[in-house]
Amino acid sequence: MTKARHTVVKEGKVGVYHCTSRCVRRAYLCGVDSHSGCDFSHRQVWVRDRLKALSKIFAIDVCGYAVMENHLHSILRNRPDIADSWSATEIAIRWRTLYPNRRDPQTKEPMVPNVAEIKALVGTPHLIKKFRKRLSSISWFMRNTNEWIARKANHEDGCKGHFWEGRFKAQALLDNASILTCSAYVALNPIHAGKAETPEGSDFTSIQDRILARQAQRNLANTPREVRTDPTPEQAQMLQEMRHLAQRADWLCPLRDQEGRKGFLNLDLDDYLLLVEWAGRQHRRDKAGRIPGDCAQILDRLELDHKAWLETIQYFDNRFYRVVGSAQQMLKAAKRSGQNWFQGISTARFCFKAE
User: Fold this and answer.
1) How confident is residue 285, by pLDDT bands cut at 50, 70 and 90?
2) What is the 3-state secondary structure (H, E, C) of 41-77?
3) Which helix (H) or strand (E) segment is 20 a member of?
4) What is the sign, positive or negative, of the torsion defined by CA atoms of 85, 209, 18, 292?
5) C-alpha to C-alpha distance for 43 and 220, rounded to whole angstroms
6) Domain contains 204
7) Better pLDDT: 79 or 342
8) Total domains in the fold of the chain
9) Residue by residue, what is the 3-state secondary structure of 306-328?
10) Angle between helices 206-221 and 233-246 (to 10 degrees)
11) Which of 2, 64, 300, 335 has the fewest C-beta atoms lying within 10 Å of its C-beta?
């Protein structure tokens, strides 16, 4: 029997969720359509930019994403604790930025809310309370992502109707092991689909953003001092491009805690990238090999079975339905939802050693 989404997505409590949206009839509406031959790949830029824009408005952390040709994966963490710290004025500004009262008559672009609009909203406490809750809601974040993309695509195609296949699917990630497993699954989606050979070559993914940003940061650190202090015009252009690339992943939630920012995994970026790169190689038979000692230590520390973990990240979406975590965590979640069990508990016992 279908359960209401609120039995899994706890909007008023901090949690991490894997959200999936699929194009209607699984058509390639964000890629090359085999029937018409039309190339809609530019819409992948729309999706990524929309996630980035909304992450600056909502109290929602984007921990990971992968924009595929016919579906979207995102790993989100709601932060009602942050929304509660915002003043009424900040809530009003964010909400009016999201839902503007005025648009430019010529461009139809939303206009920056003025003082009168902000004061009017601040003067209605019951609306501020309602909008504060919505600004930390996974459902409202996904609604503002999917609806915006659908309207823009339909306008481009000159048509009406559904773009996405119903509402998004949400899975609650209950612990560090499940978050890591899901993150690796999302990161390797283009490789498993045969669209890329390496994580750094996986366009429109959070892992590519993190890899390119790390490379740029290291290149900047290794740039000779004289080049940084007195560059030629060509070198100045190169430095500007590297600085821009070094900030590519700044909008994403960091893995570990940083100053003023809460991480979502107790794992260093280098260790995470090492694990994902190794897992990606196992998918390609010509690149497979024994697990490196560093990877084995990380998986052991997280109490993950090496072989089962590889299999789970390849078939993650088919093995779990509503919640993901250790068997014990899944049973607790089922009890809270008024059920005896959740689909995937046998996989949890196989993959996640912790009980």
Assistant:
1) low
2) CHHHHHHHHHHHHHHCCCCEEEEEEEECCCEEEEEEE
3) strand 15-22
4) negative
5) 32
6) yes
7) 79
8) 1
9) HHHHHHHHHCHHHHCCCEECCHH
10) 140
11) 2
Give the N- to C-terminal CA distance of the chain in Å, as an integer: 27
Residue 45's identity, in one-letter code, is: V
3-state class (DSSP) for residue 156: helix
Boundaries of domain holding 301: 176-316
What distances in angstroms separate CA 294 from CA 184, 274, 275, 280, one per listed residue? Answer: 16, 8, 9, 16
Q: How far apart are CA 221 and CA 300, in angstroms?
A: 33
Is the predicted pLDDT of residue 221 greater than 70, yes or no? Answer: yes
For 220-240, what is the mean pLDDT?
91
Characterize the bridge pairing of strands 169-173 and 323-324: parallel
Rg (CA), the chain: 22
**352 has a pLDDT exceeding 60:** yes
Residue that wins the pLDDT comparison between 194 and 294: 194
Q: What span, in angstroms and rounded, lies between the C-alpha atoms of 351 and 270?
A: 23
Residue 262, helix vs strand vs coil = coil
Tell the residue number behind the tokens 């959070």, with chain if given: 206
Using CB atoms within 10 A of its CB, is residue 274 exposed (0-12), middle (13-18) or buried (19+)?
middle
Q: For residues 350 and 307, is the Cβ–Cβ distance under 8 A?
A: no
Which phi and psi (to 5°) does residue 103 adopt? -130, 150
Exposure class string for 221-259: b at 16+ Cβ within 10 A, else e: eeeeeeeeeebeeeeeeebeebeebbebbeebbbbeeee
Question: Is residue 298 a part of any domain in this protein?
Answer: yes
In the β-sheet with 60-67, what is the strand arrangement from edge to edge? 60-67, 71-78, 15-22, 169-173, 323-324
Contacts of 191 (CB under 8 A, 6+ apart): 197, 198, 199, 202, 280, 283, 284
Tokens standing for residue 216: 């740029």
Q: Which amino acid is at 157?
A: D
Looking at the domain assignment, is residue 111 inside a domain? no
> What φ, ψ does residue 32 adopt, rounded to 5°?
-95, 120
Neighbours of 193 (CB within 10 A): 14
1 band by pLDDT with thresholds 50, 70 and 90? very low
Residue 264's CB is within 10 A of a number of other CB atoms, namely 24
Q: Can you give the pTM of this predicted structure?
A: 0.92
